[in-house]
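Annotated sample (chain length 285).
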Amino acid sequence: MTPPETIGATLGAVAAALGEAGFDEPRRRARRVLAVALGLSQSDVFASVDRAVTETERERVTALLRRVLAHEPLSRIQGVREFWGLEFALAPDTLDPRPETEAVIEAVIAQLPDRDRPYRFLDLGTGTGCLLLALLSEFPRTTGVGIDRALGAALTARRNAARLGFAGRSGFVVGDWADAIAGRFDAIVTNPPYIASADIRLLPTEVRDFDPRLALDGGADGLAAYRAIAAQLPRLLLPSGIAACELGIGQDALVAGIFSEAGLVVESTEPDLSGIARCIVARRA
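Output written by the structure step:
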């Protein structure tokens, strides 16, 4: 009689398949695949290597591995992504939040050290709502508005706000950047599309085929969204307000020039954890 296949043996087989397909860190990725397929934590996978895998579980692992080998991100498969310690539901109309975007949160916190003030925030191109809702988690008396051109994104952000307990302090609308927004804000945050149109085909499959093009395509030079946003910031910022905007790699000087031409003063450029200039902070002149 053939002994039943174990989690350890399955882990090895999945890691081998990922390695042969050219994925980096195949063992780590294999642990994540098994954790999702079997409904375990990654530490539980490690601790259960001798447990037998049922036929149903084996089928789930095989189906999930097939999708991962096609470069579908596990976050898309699960439908959730952790950002700033919070869990955000994803949708086809939302960008999958990345860790480097947390540089925007860190920049706002550094500029607004008084966490107890009742600030008013605006998130342009809100997607999942991750920027606005992460800030609301840090500023307990703050309210905010998120706006997105995609209805599906605005609805997803609203659902994330409700699930995380921020529905009473946030609102989400559909619009073209801030055209439909009135009033002024203490902080405006945004992670705009900044990939040049011709370069989208060069992106990794995980991004190119699974993130919405609307959230990626920054026009011919990748800077179209920055120009549109910069033109609206002077009327939207309070005199003491700040704008914190994510940058693409190597775009810091170009975006600083666009903001300066719009009458804004660039305060700083902040790096992400890899030391790459990732966020520009500006104020009204």
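Annotation: The domain at 90-284 is CATH 3.40.50.150 (Rossmann fold).
Annotation: The first strand starts at residue 80 and ends at 83.
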